[in-house]
Structure formats: C-alpha cells, structure tokens
Request: fold
Amino acid sequence: MNQAVQNALEEASPALDSKIIPVMREAITTVQIVLFQQLKESVSRRYPQYAEEERIRLTGAVVNNLYGTEALDPQVNHFARDHRELIEEELRGLRTQVPELIPHITDSLRMQTLCDNHEGVHSIPCLLLARELGLLEENRELPLPSTFMLSVRKLGATSGLVKPLQTNPPSAGQETKQGE
Reply:
C-alpha cells in the first residue's frame, strides 16, 4: 500500500471525530449507489441475455465485493457464489466501464478504511483489491472529510440522488464591506 495512505490512516484515525463517522458513511454509500446505477446501465447494455433480476444481482455483487460488504439479500450472495468468475471479470473492467467514478471510488474506499479503522475494523483488504484492479489512484491526495463530503454531494446531485447544494447570495442588508 502507498505509504502516504498508510500514514494518513494512522494519523487520521484517532483524530476523526466520532460524530463525523455516520456522515462520512452516508457519503460512502452515496458513491456506492452512483456506482451501482452507472454499472447497472452498463451491465444491462452488455448482458441483454440476462434477466433484469440477474443483471441487478450481478451489479450488486460487484459493488459489494469492491467495498467488502455482505449483501442483505441471500439471493445476491447465492448469485455471487455461482458467478464468481463473471464478478471478477466485471471488477477488472470497472476502470473502463465507469472511468469518471474512479476518483470517487478511490476517495470512498480510503474514507471507508479510515472510518472502519476508527471503529476497530480492519478493511485494508478493500484498498488492496482496488489497487490490484487498477481502481485506486495512489497518487491522489487524501481529501479532508469536508472536501470528500462536498464532492460526493456534487456527485449525488449530478446523478439525481440529492438536490444540488444551493448557496443564496447575501441580501443587500447582509453584505459586508471589505476591510470591516
């Protein structure tokens, strides 16, 4: 693993405020949902011979595998066991299927590892898998949690998951002069 990532994990874990963990996890989930949406479209185009339910299970199994999560639906787990090679093939092809999401995948996997580490869970294997698959941009700087959450908010808005962040210009009475 990149030494910078390892150092960031060691430095950031104790400094992370427990109150921010749920918000960061929500941002990580948003990246997973966007990945699921985009990958599902790609899978549907490439595997028209599969039933819609199978395409959804394949997509879910790929996302779950990448993030090291267990599916709540036992049928997805059964599908994953029966189609291991196909899932691995899809994982290897993610970089070409969703290239615009690679920075978000990198950041979300790193943030997931930080959150997990803070909670005493060892999830570095997800980062190692992503690196092996060419999905981890190791030279990418680890963003601050606020920067990560804002970029994910923008991604979610672009994908239609959340409303765009609106900033209202100050009203005439609220404007301040420079130098005051």
